[in-house]
What we know:
The complex is a heterodimer. By secondary structure, chain A is of the alpha/beta class. Chain A has helices at residues 24-37, 57-73, 84-92, 96-99, and strands at residues 4-9, 13-22, 44-55, 76-80. Chain A is built from 4 helices and 4 strands; from the N terminus they run E-E-H-E-H-E-H-H. The longest helix of chain A is centred in the middle third of the chain and has 17 residues, at 57-73. Chain A is globular, with a radius of gyration of 14 Å. Chain A starts with a strand and ends in a 24-residue tail after the last helix. By secondary structure, chain B is α+β, with helices and mostly antiparallel strands. Chain B folds into 4 domains: 3-126, Four Helix Bundle (Hemerythrin (Met), subunit A); 157-295, Alpha-Beta Plaits, CATH 3.30.70; 396-494 and 541-576, 2-Layer Sandwich (Heat Shock Protein 90), CATH 3.30.565; 581-719, CATH 2.40.50.180.
Amino acid sequence: MEPVQTLQTTNSGFEIKWQGYLTVPFVKEWKNLADVWTNEKGKVIHLDLNGIQRIDSAGIQFLIYLKELSQTNHYSIHLKNHSLAVLKVLDLLGLVSFFGDRVKVKKEHSNEVEFRYGTRKTN
Amino acid sequence: MDLTEVIDAYLVESEEFLRDMEAILLRTEVSTPSDDDLNAIFRAVHTIKGTAGMFGFDSTVKFTHVVENLLDGLRSHEIPFAEGLTEILLNAKDHLSYLVLEETKGKIPESKVVHGNSILDQMKPYLKNDTSEKTNTDPLLAVPLENKPTLQTSGFGIPAYLISFRPNRNVFSQGLDPISFIGYLKKIGTIHALKTISEIAANLENIDPEFCYLGFEIHFVSDSDLETVRKVFNFIENDSFLHILPPGAGIQDLCDLSGQLPEEEILLGNLWKEIGILTDASLIQYLETLKTLKTGIETNTNQLSNSFNSVEPVKETVTQNPASQTNKDTNKSSTIKVDSKRIDNLINRVGELVVSCANMNQLIGNMEDSNLQESSILAMRLLNEVREISLKLRMVPIGDSFQKYTRIVRDLGKELGKDIKLSTEGNETELDRNIVEKLSDPLTHLVRNACDHGLETPEEREKKGKPRQGTIKLNAFHEAGSVVIEITDDGNGIQKEKVWQKGLDKGLVSGSMPESEDEIYKLLFHPGLSTASQITNVSGRGVGLDVVLQNIESLRGNITVKSTPSQGSRFILRLPLTLAIIDGFLVEVGKNQFIIPMDMIFECLHFTDENKADANQFFALRGSLIPYLRLKDYYPSESTGDSVRENIVIVRNGEKKAGIVVERLLGEYQTVIKPMGSVFRHVKGVSGSSILGDGNVALIIDIPSLFERTITLENEKLYK
């Protein structure tokens, strides 16, 4: 599904809502966009992932890229409203503590994720 | 990496180990084995066991385990090396060769298991306390035998599977998603912990989102066997790094693994601790072992005994001598194993380069620019060196292949009641590996024939005044761009009359026996013709030499036979050095171009009416008659319309010479041999084709095959 992103300016930076697929065919295009957002130093970027319906290795790698880039470009990035698709991958790959954001799991999704490893608690 | 590639590597490695083992065991028939010999045999069996264990080849593991016990006793001198042990160990080696090969294809049949057990039974009297029954503490054995992960009760063993997975960079473009493979693991077990490693930080500036920079270390708990776990990654293994350590694998295995991973060893140690593969104590053990391996100074030998790789894990080899360890490391890095397909690929590419540079050189030659011409000559010289080097990559000494005939001759001698010695010469002669592999069957057949038909029994030899021991000699040498392999015996020789009579009986020939020996011996290569007076287990069923000839011809080689009554026979195999690139000589007939292999060209002359000794077939060359043929008679070609002055190319094959009449001589040309398609495989006289720099196709003339045709046309006695 073609990704859609809406950008809202906040006091400290931006909030970006992503919808659709965060998968190989789209990450290249998204990277170009991300390079534009992350050029300004000192900003806070919130990524609202509620609308992500599918994410693959390339997508998760892209999120890692944004996080790594934030260290060198001196901005901070936060993932919020993770969709189930995103949560499942973060859970499987033990990346929750890497991003360090608060994760909310809806009650109906509680059986779908375990967080047995890769959280600050276990590490 | 594809599983088949890994298994192929296991087969190749095991074959090498077993070949060495056999060579050592055969030496023990003459002299007592040295400690080095016993260690080498032990190492061979131990390594095969370890790798077989990784793949879950139970039969191989069970069998080698007992053999290893015996060898362990021998090398520690707890068991004296008794005379009968050579025979038992040779049988064990044979059975192991069978197991290694067959178990990769499927389950070993019960009859073969029984056979293996009978060999193990023969070992029992030598084994102190019958160690075959003792509890197995080898962590690698725990997996295949139990077929489920087991924790080690003593020493360190990893608690479950450790999967180290680094997808290849292009995995996304191949339409594969590593996450889905990892997710699939959950269907056959539980991911206890997983650590994602990313190389993104290191590549931040130049990241390409379509490349994969991720890697995974997985602590995986499952009842499934190693094969099942590995199969999860079947589709993605290609070009990716995948290493699965089974439950119970030891510190040494982790050290070996860390050497293969891109991350730093200490970082990996911490990472494995993080996912629960290492504990605090075993992390220290791991770091100490790493240190030992790097410095060569051992701190605790017992901890190192869990190796399954070819690194000798026992006390003797992890010595206290740093110098010897360094030396070993140096030896280790001096050779690398490369997939033969990659080398073939390289040679093909170099071949293409040779062709296009030859064309470029031709064009530059026509230009009047001396600087350019000089550069072009230099480039061609370098390219020739590259070509030579790349061709040598595939060259192996024939001696390795000769070695196995010692065993064949020994066993056949026993079976036939003959005393036979095998001597080899020219072991260092190098030949294309592809050819060596395909030579194995024909050579085996010829050696067996020499043992059975060629040599007499000791009694017969004694009566004839010959030594009781017969000799078979294998000799290899280079000659005129070919490799010649001779199989000689000092036996009875071939009885020409008998062969001719058989030919008459079968209706293959008619008339009286010709003077030409070659014509008579050629009958030996007819299907179904055997001169053996009785059929034995070894040979004589009339099946064989025809297949030998076919095999040799498929390698663009030929066979000639020489024999002297009561003195012996010699089979001479003449083969091309390589099947890939040749130095050729380009000639033209009408509008068609042909390439004659340069090595076979003796000289080129102007072909005039004066030197045609015979209106049709012979050419006078400095007092001798040489048969010739006109290429255009065999490969009709459209005429260019110009009146041409013919030339004759004198070629030689072994001792014989012949002429090929062509219209134009175009000069030397390096070329890549492209095999003929299957439709044209029956076409005689052509060994392949080549695409010339200008895009035209030239056929490569197969001289031996053309000789064959010339000989058939003319009476061979005129060659003399």
